[in-house]
Write a structure and sequence with these properties.
With 701 residues, the chain is α+β, with helices and mostly antiparallel strands. It has 21 helices and 23 strands. It has five domains: 131 residues, Beta-Lactamase (2-Layer Sandwich); 128 residues, PAS domain (Beta-Lactamase), CATH 3.30.450.20; 111 residues, Beta-Lactamase (2-Layer Sandwich), CATH 3.30.450; 86 residues, Signal transduction histidine kinase, dimerisation/phosphotransfer (DHp) domain (Helix Hairpins), CATH 1.10.287.130; 175 residues, 2-Layer Sandwich (Heat Shock Protein 90), CATH 3.30.565. β11 and β12 form a beta hairpin. It binds adenosine-5'-diphosphate (ADP). The site of adenosine-5'-diphosphate has 21 residues, from α17 and α19.
Amino acid sequence: MKETKEETEQEMFRELLDQINIGLMACRVYHNAPDTIDAYYVNNAMAVLMGYEPMELLELYKKSIWNNLFPEDRENLQEKVNRVLTGQQHFTEFCEDIWIVRKNKEIRWVNLRIVSRHENESGWNYCLSCQDITERVETKQKYQEEMTYYTTFAKQSLAFFHCNMTNNVVEKKNSSNMKMLETMVPQNVDEILASIGDTIPLPEERAIYDAHFTREAMIKAYEQGVFHFAMEHWDTCIDGWIETSYDMLKNPVTGELVAFMFARDINARILAQKIIGRITEQEYDYIGCIDVARKEYSIYIQSQNGTRLPPIGPVDFESTIAEMIEKFVPAEDAEMTAVNVNFSHILEELQKNDVYTFVTRMLENDGKPRYKRVSFIYLDDMKQTILFSRSDIQAIMMEEQEQKQVLGHALRAAEQASKAKSEFLSRMSHEIRTPMNAIIGLSALAASDVDKPDVMADSIAKIGMSARYLLSLINDILDMSRIESGRMELNESVFDFDKLIFNINNIIFPQASKKGVDYDVIVNRYVEKAYLGDETKIQQVLINILGNSIKFTPKGGKITLHVEQLECVDNRARMRFEISDTGIGIDEDYLPHLFEAFTREANGYTATVQGTGLGLAIAKSMVEMMDGDIRVRSIKNVGSVFTVELFLGVSEATRERLNLVESMNLTKLHALIIDDDVLVCESTEQIFRIWDYRLNGWIPE
Ligand code: ADP
């Protein structure tokens, strides 16, 4: 009965032990074999902890209780257990944290204690407890590691402080910057946080700081799972950019919240960023990266001024770019652009060259296309990322085109000039040879006709003509070379205007009558008796032009020289000479080259007329020297009008003509104007009116 009761109690006791969450093991150590530990009971929790069935574990322990230990721990532990067994240490003092290896090879931390000891005749009964403390140990270790990490990190920072947020206590603080040290003078966390805030001058940045860097905000953030926060701001301590951050952890032992705050000098990085940003803004519409494996891109930098920008991403490269081409690339460039931007094509091009670039056009908001350069380059050696950019090159392209045009013009002009010069040389030799041959031939003829004075006189006259032509030819060439080398100068003096016209008429009139061409001079309005200027050059200009008119006006035609003084301001008179003819006219294509040296219009008529192609070039240069200009209007087969405008000086001394007219008092005279040209009659009438002639009404008004 007694035995049964004891057995029942034992049974109940065992059941109770199996309910307990702590692993328990009972063992015996016999007096006669103190080295042998005989395990005879393990509870459920012990079996679960070791990863066995209870009976299985007991069997294992019956062989040896050291089975689940690391070999290196085993010896150490046996020695400590022995101290208890041999009575060197009281069993209550035995407490060890050890690693055990579970059946499935998993490693756990356990706390091992000896809970009880009872002696009987044969030896001692021990009870050991085993408690899983893996999580506690790991949390502690992690905390220690983080503490070490932040303390190391602190050394690289501009400033740091380590504080207990729960208790508002600063544990540690330091800074390599004097001004920052000053901000950390206050003792508690709240005060330091506020004093750091005062070093942030920009209101927007200060507001962000205030929202995140108070003890209250930080504790709340931790509770919501935010353990880290960082912000960049301008700071008055270094007068540059700083990154201020915090990291928080909970002390696993005390449960208190610990924060590490850091200030890092990021001035160089921000400066570099800003420089890149500015350059990018000026040089690029955008810069992005393509993830080669995913065929996705993201845009990292965009210009403020850029238009038609692709979405920031990350988005699919091929479909997005195809959409961009359809929307923004002009239809005529779309196919070429699609080929250039094809993903495999880009990879192929980057196999061949480091950089792949192409140019396309994109339609702007106003619908006008602008040139864009798109470039691709691998960013990494693994060829996993491609950097791509787009820049606006409209201005460069325009400049290039303009330059090409200018160069093209210059080339054509140079070609034309060299062609004209060689043509001139060949013509010149021909032109010189003709009169020279005439002179040589006629002089031989004259020598042989000494006894025939009439024939001889004729030959000598012709020799004279040829010689004069030769002289004028050489004069023209000399003039031109003087102009081209800048050696031609104005020889200004007071000259008689009537005499100038008279001299011109003396040369032109005989030539015109000889050719059977009518020649009229109309001095339209009042002109001065004398002017200050280079008379010879004016005469040469007008004779060159009038000479051409005679040359290029067939028999029966008409040439008119129209002279007028347009205005006179501050003793500077603007003169206009208009030479019109009813000649062959000038072709529209040749007009732009009319005043170029050594050129002549390529037509049958010109070829029959003597000339060098220098007359008008000389005339133009001379007129320009006189601050004037020369223009031409011409209709083929109708005629040409050359207009020369230039400035001449007028002084009081030159106003003689007016005085003369006044002193003559012609007002009593009657006049009759007779001419077959109405224009001549009209201009003469004008002059008479200025002179106050009495017109008796028989001239039609
Ligand atoms: P040149 O008369 O010696 O040939 P110019 O320089 O004086 O040289 O003239 C150049 C060319 O301009 C002439 O060869 C001719 O083809 C054209 N030209 C000049 N004046 C006239 C004009 N009044 N009518 C028609 N063609 C003209």
